[in-house]
Amino acid sequence: MPDSLLLPTLVSLLPVLGFVALLLFLDSYKLVPPGRVAALLAAGGAAAVATYPVNGWLLQHLAIDLASFSRYVAPWVEESLKGAIILALLRRQRIGFLVDAAVAGFAVGCGFALVENLYALWRMPGAGMGTWVVRGFGTAVMHGGATAALALVSLVLLERREGPTWRAALPGLAIAAALHSAFNHLSAQPQIAALAALVVVPALLLVAYHRGERALAQWLGRGFDADAELLALIQSGALPDSPAGRYLATLRQRFDGPVVADLLCYLRLFTELALRAKGLLLMRENGFDVPADEDTRAKFAELHYLEGSIGRAGLLALAPLLPMRRKDLRQLHLVDA
User: Fold this and answer.
1) How far apart are CA 221 and CA 72, in angstroms?
2) I need a surface site. Which of 178, 208, 211, 319 has the fewest CB within 10 A?
3) Count of C-beta atoms within a 10 Å radius of residue 261
4) Residue 62, number of CB atoms within 10 A of its CB
5) Beta strand ranges found along the chain (DSSP E)
6) Is the Cβ–Cβ distance between 327 and 158 less than 8 Å?
7) How does residue 143 score in pLDDT terms, banded at 50, 70 and 90?
8) What digits encode the pLDDT tens for the residues 100-112?
């Protein structure tokens, strides 16, 4: 790399990477490991590569000038491609908390911005330092913040109401595209655009972190007690006399005896793994990282086998006993990682 491009490269790339590192540092529960962040950066970069032919084709076939295209069309294209990655994570239960939604969204947007800025360095090697300051502190932060907003809004809506994941992601996509469009409207005043991104995005992420970590701590406390109580009932043999046991008894009228036995085994295994996941989060908060052992992996293998054995009808029947919200499903992936 020529010496003349070294400083522009650092200015355009390092600020947003430093922001990702800060988010990982602030994540006291270590919900998103560094390896996954690297994969999300790469996925965001791939989305950026995909936008060039799509935007080029649209610009060629739409009767619209470049300025209007960058304000009203490009934001929807780019946020949709980045949002597809977030949608895949949500569908696979890899995002369940506000904190990891913020980290994952910002990492995808950051990867997108890194490729975009590298392309700009190649196309405009003679641009002044002001251009790279704006791209590094403004455009890149905007990309990360817009995708983080998409992830946060989509997760909140999924928590509040049942329905297809893609439907919950649509409002988040609209917000991300609106933020992106607003930034592009200030292209004639790039310093103001960069300043706005530096004010709005950190504020958004700090609010998400504060609310997310507080909600996660409350959820851990409530969930730990409930899981421990249910597991104690199962292990002591007192489950049949409890409301959960009486509910299981009613399932004998709908399922064969072996299936009811599998339902009970699934309930026990799910509860044991949920307790381990909550304990793992608490240990991470205090600086300890305990990897999954062979016993945990064996329990996961048995859990997956039982899911196939009891089928979708059985899982739906257990829904009143298991808090099958996105947080509780996400926690299983924490100990299966």
Assistant:
1) 45
2) 319
3) 13
4) 11
5) none
6) no
7) very high
8) 899 999 999 999 9
Single-letter code of the amino acid located at 248: L
Cα 68 from Cα 187, distance rounded (Å): 11
Q: Are 137 and 15 in contact (CB under 8 A)?
A: yes
Q: How far, in Å, CA of 28 to CA of 334, rounded?
A: 14
R_g over Cα of the chain: 24
CA terminus-to-terminus distance, the chain: 38
Q: How far apart are CA 48 and CA 74, in angstroms?
A: 12
Are 147 and 112 in contact by the 8 Å Cβ rule? The answer is yes
Tokens of 266: 């699934």
Q: Which two tokens stand for residue 296?
A: 């945990």
Q: Which of 287, 285, 300 is nearest to 335 (CA)?
A: 300
Q: What is the pLDDT of residue 256?
A: 80
CA distance 96 to 93: 7
For residues 86 and 238, what is the distance between their CA atoms, to the nearest angstrom? 43
- Predicted confidence (pLDDT) per residue in 48-70, tens digit: 999 999 999 999 999 899 999 99
DSSP string, 207-255: HHHHHHHHHHHHHHHHHHHHHHHHHHHHHHT-GGGSHHHHHHHHGGGTS
**How many CB atoms sit inside 10 A of residue 1's CB?**
7
Give yes or no for residue 239 having a pLDDT over 60: yes
Region for 197 from its dihedrals, namely left if φ exceeds 0, alpha if ψ lies in -120 to 50, beta otherwise: alpha
Residues near 62 by Cβ (< 8 Å), separated by ≥ 6?
Answer: 69, 73
| Dihedral of alpha carbons 59, 64, 69, 73, sign | negative
Stretch 281-304: mean pLDDT: 73
User: Between the CA of residue 315 and those of 40, 318, 325, what are the distances in Å?
Assistant: 31, 5, 13
DSSP 3-state of 135: helix
